[in-house]
Amino acid sequence: MVKIDKIVLPEFPLLLAPMEDVSDPPFRAVCKDNGADLMYTEFISSEGLIRDAIKSRQKLDIFDYERPIGIQIFGGDEESLALAAKIVDVTNPDMLDINFGCPVKKVAGKGAGAGVLKDIDLMVRLTDAVVKATRLPVTVKTRLGWDENSKNIEEVAERLQDVGIKALSIHGRTRSQMYKGEADWTLIANVKNNPRIHMPIFGNGDIDSPQKALEYKNRYGVDGIMIGRAAIGYPWIFREIKHYVKTGELMDPPTVDERVEVCRKHLRKSLEWKGPIVGINEMRRHYANYLKGLPGIKEYRNRLVVLKTMEEVEAVLDEVQENYAGYVIERNPIVLENYHQHCPL
Ligand SMILES: Cc1cc2nc3c(=O)[nH]c(=O)nc-3n(C[C@H](O)[C@H](O)[C@H](O)COP(=O)(O)O)c2cc1C
C-alpha cells in the first residue's frame, strides 16, 4: 500500500491527472467508477480564489464519493498561495496539490508562475508558505525542469520534501518540450531511487495502455502512475491497467452497453453540476469519444450534438444501445493528443 500522510492508497495506485476543462466532477465520477484511486481537480488560480471569481470557486466543488481527492492550486506569490490554501482548507479535500510552472498569462505577466521552474528557491518558498498555511497534506505536481539544460527535478524533490510535501507527481518532460517528444521517465526513476526520498513518487507522461503501464511500473519502480490524456473519453483505462497488472491479461474492451451507460452517467452528472444548458452543451464534445469504433456512429453523433434536452439525448442513446446490441468494438490504440494551448504541466 502507498501512504500520503495518513491517506492510504492501494498498492500501485492509479491517479487521474488534473486537467483544465476536463477533470471536472462529471468526468471524475466516471473515472472513479472505473478504478481511479486518487483524483485531482482542474488547477485553480490562487488569485481567482482570493478575488472570489465564480469559475475558480466552482472548481472547489468536491463530493464524498470522490475521496480521496486533491484540490490543485497555482500561483506566483507566497501570500496569495497561502491565502488560497486557507480557502481550500474550508472545503475539506483530502489533500492540496500545487501546480508549478504553468505559463498562464495572468501569472507569468507578473514575473512569476512560469518562471518558478527556473527558480528552485522561489519554488521552495512558495511550497513552504502553502505547507504552513494549511492543515492538509500538500503534494506537488511538476515537470523535469524548465528546459534541456535545467532538469533539476532531483534537487527539487529533495528540497520540497524537506519543507514538508507528502507526495510528488512528475511529468517526464521539461516545460520547453510542451508535449513534444516522448516523456522520459529515467529522471523520475532517479528521484524514486534516491535513498533520501521517502514520500511517494508518481510517474506521469504518455501512459496509453495497460502494457505500457506495467512495463513502466517494472522499469522505473514508481509508487504509482498518473494518467491524463488516455482517460479522456476512455475512463476504462484505469480498470484495464489494474486488471493487467494483477493478471497479466488484457480485459475485454467495454461493451456497447457499458459505453452508453457511462455516457449517460457523464451526461447526468454534467447537467446536475453545470445546469441544463451548459451541461448539455459541454457534453457535446464527449459523444464521439464514448461511441468511437461503432460503424456509422457519425450520424448519431451529428444528431446528439444539436439536441437541447436530456430526454432527447437519452432517446438517441437508447437507439444506439438497441441498434448496436451485442456489437463488439475492436480494441484500438489510444491516441494521445497534443494540447499545446493548455497548461503544459
Ligand atoms: C487538457 C489538459 C489540461 C491540463 N491541465 C492541467 C492542470 O490543470 N494542472 C496540471 O497540473 N496539469 C495539467 N495538464 C497536464 C496533465 O496533468 C499531465 O501532466 C499531462 O497531460 C501528461 O500526462 P498524459 O501523457 O497522461 O496526458 C493538462 C493536460 C491536458 C491534456
Molecular structure report:
- This protein is α/β, with parallel strands linked by helices.
- It is 42% helix and 15% strand.
- Strands 3-4-5-6-7-8-9-10 form an eight-stranded parallel beta barrel, surrounded by five helices. The chain has a two-stranded antiparallel sheet with strand order 1-2.
- The longest helix is centred in the last third of the chain and has 19 residues, at 256-274.
- The relative contact order is 0.12.
- Bound molecules: flavin mononucleotide (FMN).
- Flavin mononucleotide (FMN) binds at residues 17-20, 22, 42-43, 72, 99, 141, 171, 204-207, 227-230, 336, 339, 342-343, 345.
Summarize this structure briefly.
The protein is an alpha/beta fold and 345 residues long. The protein contains 15 helices and 10 strands. The strands form 2 sheets. It has an 8-stranded parallel beta barrel, surrounded by 5 helices.
Number of helices: 15
Give a list of the ligands. Answer: flavin mononucleotide
Rough outline: globular
Reading the helices and strands in chain order gives: EEEHEHHEHEHHEHEHEHEHHHHHH
Tally of DSSP β-strands: 10
The separation of the N and C termini measures 27 Å
Strand content: 15-25%
Give unreliable regions as ranges: none
Tell me the helix content. 40-55%
Strand order of the largest sheet: 3-4-5-6-7-8-9-10
- The overall average pLDDT, rounded, is 93
Major sheet summary line: 8 strands, parallel, barrel
What value does the Rg take, in angstroms? Answer: 20 Å
Alpha-beta classification? alpha/beta
